[in-house]
Amino acid sequence: MIKIAPSILSADFSRLGEEIKMLNESGADMVHIDIMDGHFVPNLTIGPLVIEKLRGLSDLPFDVHLMMDNPMDFIDDFVDAGANIISIHAEAVHHLHRSIIAIKEKGVKASVTLNPSTPLNVLDYVIEDLDMVLLMTVNPGFGGQSYIPSMTRKIKDLRAMANKFKPDLDIEVDGGINIENIGEVVKAGANVIVSGSSIFMAKEPKKMIEKLRNFAMV
Ligand code: DX5
Ligand code: ZN
């Protein structure tokens, strides 16, 4: 089943509550929340305090993407704030296996994110322990960038690897996804689709979510 995860990075932050309520009635499957620290990526966003406030407005799963150094220092805060899925970047931790286990012990789903240039082999011996892998299909830090074409090959390779070692792995893709290329990433093996600017810059975001779902069925 395809899951659509709108990224609120491109939402109107002055009306974040209303944007979240809009997503509640949009058919979206989860809310993708981008956390940036100004070190791991050259941008800053929000932290657990904002997530905690949003939690009161939605029952949708919160898919929290940590683009930060030392993410393990803040796992408790994000879990307490209401995260349901936590993605840490493989590039940001020294002990990936230990970090995955620690996240799962908190009772939330564990996901590892890879930057576009990071090879899949960092997952070789942890894939069985993961609920999801988040493949960046742009370099992280900003919304509105273009999909990197070689990522289609990476998605296919990861789906082949998952079929061998973790058949029910969710493969999430993040960056530059729109109605033009959603079919391609789904065909390659992705099943969780993040989309920020294409949804929130659309005249009618709810209709765009529906459209993305239709274009995913290829
Ligand atoms: C980028 C973020 C994305 C971003 C995607 O670093 O991780 O979640 O919001 O935005 P679009 O869909 O506009 O590429
Ligand atoms: Zn993201």
Give an overview in words.
This protein is of the alpha/beta class and 218 residues long. The chain has a single domain (3-216), classed as TIM Barrel (Alpha-Beta Barrel). Helix content is 33%, strand content 19%. It contains 8 helices and 8 strands, in the order E-H-E-H-E-H-E-H-E-E-H-E-H-E-H-H. The chain has helices spanning 16-24, 48-55, 75-81, 96-105, 151-165, 182-188, 197-200, 205-216; strands at residues 3-6, 31-36, 62-67, 85-89, 109-114, 132-136, 170-174, 192-195. Strands 1-8-7-6-5-4-3-2 form an 8-stranded parallel beta sheet. Helix 2 (48-55) links the parallel strand 2 and strand 3. Helix 2 runs parallel beside helix 3. The chain is globular. It starts with a strand and ends with a helix. The relative contact order is 0.17. The model has no long low-confidence stretch (mean pLDDT 98). The site of D-xylitol-5-phosphate has 22 residues, from strand 2, strand 8 and helix 7.
Tell me the strand percentage band: 15-25%
Which ligands appear in the coordinates? Answer: D-xylitol-5-phosphate, zinc ion
Alpha-beta classification: alpha/beta
Helix content: 25-40%
Could you give the distance between the termini? 13 Å
Shape: globular
CATH class: Alpha Beta
The CATH topology is given as TIM Barrel
Please, what is the average pLDDT?
98
Number of domains: 1
CATH level-four homologous superfamily name = Aldolase class I
In CATH, the architecture is Alpha-Beta Barrel
Strand arrangement in the largest pleated sheet: 1-8-7-6-5-4-3-2
Quantity of strands, as a count: 8
The biggest beta sheet is recorded as:
8 strands, parallel
